[in-house]
Amino acid sequence: MTGTFYGLGVGPGPYGLLPVTALEILQTADLIYAPRSRVSPDSVALAALDGLPFPRDRVREVEFLMDGDDTRIGEHYAALAHEIAAHQRAGRSVAYLTIGDAMTYSTLGYLVAALTREAPDLPRRVFPGVTSYATAAALTGFSLGEGKERVLILPCPDDMAALRADILVHDVVALMKVGRRMADVLALLQELGIAEHCALAHRLGLDGEVVLPSLAPAPDPGRLGYLSVVLIRREAPRRFA
Amino acid sequence: MTGTFYGLGVGPGPYGLLPVTALEILQTADLIYAPRSRVSPDSVALAALDGLPFPRDRVREVEFLMDGDDTRIGEHYAALAHEIAAHQRAGRSVAYLTIGDAMTYSTLGYLVAALTREAPDLPRRVFPGVTSYATAAALTGFSLGEGKERVLILPCPDDMAALRADILVHDVVALMKVGRRMADVLALLQELGIAEHCALAHRLGLDGEVVLPSLAPAPDPGRLGYLSVVLIRREAPRRFA
User: Second label for A169, Cα 20 to 30 Å away, from A44, A207, B51, B101?
Assistant: First the structure.
């Protein structure tokens, strides 16, 4: 009997946002791979499972690779897929954690592609999760689309003129991976006169969390960049009388 | 003691995609409002909770209003907010179910705005959920953004020229509420030569579910429109060698 590979979106932060079904998978998997960034001592995906009941002794942390050239990324995920497929062939089920949703700006896509090449015959299932931008929206009462509205999800560009143009032709913009551009983004929102109805979430559920339902007055951008999402509306939301 | 209002995104279909924390809230709430469309005999939100343990006798179905003019929608949600606030003041906690994510093209936004006007002093919390498009992506292995990619979420326009223009300037398009335009959408994807790497999910987890990881050859659009999402990529996905 071969084991199944399960890709699990665990949601952002330890809020218990893991879907019920994904927790059930986690409780029965033989091995749980928890990716960890090279710049962080801990797995953020694992931290998102704080307080939930599942066997910790089955976890193995693996470093994930997001940057680098295509060849290097390809080799990294091919090696990981080779190792996971061997476990599956030995009958062990393998869960792989991914922060937020499974297929949204996630390294899981690379791994699934590598597994498909390595072992197209082995069973795989991916479970979706809750995104950081949906969590930020829930916490701040920010609507991610009403009626015919158009919502753009994008990693923050370096060029603020490009971001300005995107804001002007979409109703809602959810800005991921803001990083060191936070000061420029905040300045742009003030300049456009829309900061009051824009929102921000930083380190959701983690130490140093900041959740702001309005960006007027502008917060200090100092430490707000990493693990932040900014929610932008071109116009103030409709309020039914 | 006043009761708390909880807005809960329950995810699409009975896949157990409700977040763990939302299920805990559901198990303790005094009243559970389950919105039901006027054209449907059952609550799709309630169907998404099939098989999950919570007290069914606390559920009350309410008709929701998505269409109509602003005045009518405003009156509808003001009346609902008035009723819910009275329960909260009597010490009862109230959960309100919403299919998919809580703030993504959801009527919950209207209700939260009405509650804020009716009773700004009463406690409210909104929990995010899993969207239909993230679920469709997980089931079909479709990546919702990699690296610097831009992802557009939008309700399907009537005008296929507008949709074509949107596909050409975004890397990924998740098309909601396709309805009777399904045949036109499928024809456009064939014409653009990208149908092979586009995906579709219809009635996720419900009777008559259809999940297609490729739209070439084109499926029969006949009954695929309602409760469908189409995932579109302008170019074939990168595959690391």
Answer: B101
One pLDDT digit (tens) per residue for chain B, 241 residues: 899 999 999 999 888 999 999 999 999 999 999 988 777 777 888 888 989 999 999 999 988 776 667 788 889 999 999 999 999 999 999 999 999 999 999 989 889 989 999 999 999 999 999 999 999 999 999 999 988 999 999 999 999 999 999 999 999 999 999 999 999 999 999 999 999 999 999 999 888 999 999 999 989 988 887 889 999 999 988 765 4
Buried residues in B2-21 as b, exposed as e (16+ CB within 10 A): bbbbbbbbbbbbbbbbbbbb
- CATH architecture type of domain A132-233: 2-Layer Sandwich (3.30)
- Superfamily name with CATH number, domain B5-127: Tetrapyrrole methylase, N-terminal domain (3.40.1010.10)
What is the nearest CA distance from A71 to chain B, expressed in angstroms?
A: 7
C-alpha–C-alpha distance, residues A54 and A38, integer Å? 25
B183 touches chain A (CB under 8 A): no
Distance from CA of A136 to the nearest CA of B (A): 9
Residue B157 preceded by cis peptide, ω within 30? no
Task: Say if A54 is an interface residue toward chain B (CB within 8 Å).
Answer: no
Same fold, A5-127 and A132-233: no
**Cβ pair B105:A144 closer than 8 A:** yes
Q: Which of B70, B128, B170 sits opposite A137 (nearest CB)?
A: B128
Helix (H) or strand (E) holding A6, with range, is: strand A5-9
Residues B111, B77: Cα–Cα separation, whole Å: 6
Size of interface A-B (CB pairs under 8 A): 208
User: What beta strand segments (E) does B90-170 contain?
Assistant: 94-98, 124-127, 151-155
Identify each DSSP E strand in chain B by its residue range: 5-9, 31-36, 59-63, 94-98, 124-127, 151-155, 172-176, 199-202, 210-212, 228-233
Structural contact between residues B221 and B183, judged by C-beta atoms closer than 8 angstroms: yes
Closest-CA distance of chain A to residue B197, Å: 14
Domain ranges of chain B: 5-127, 132-233
Residue type, A59: V
